[in-house]
Amino acid sequence: MTTLKVMIMQSYLKPHSFGCLLLAAAALAGAPAYSQVQDSAQQTASSGVLQPAGAADGFYEQLGGKDGVAAIVAEFVSIMLADKRIADTFEGVDMDRLHAKLAEQFCMVSGGPCSYTGKSMQEVHEDMKINNARFNASVEDLQSAMTRRGVPSRVQNRLLGKLAPTQRSIVTQ
Ligand code: HEM
Question: How close is the Cα of 14 to the center of ligand 1, in Å?
Answer without folding.
Answer: 29
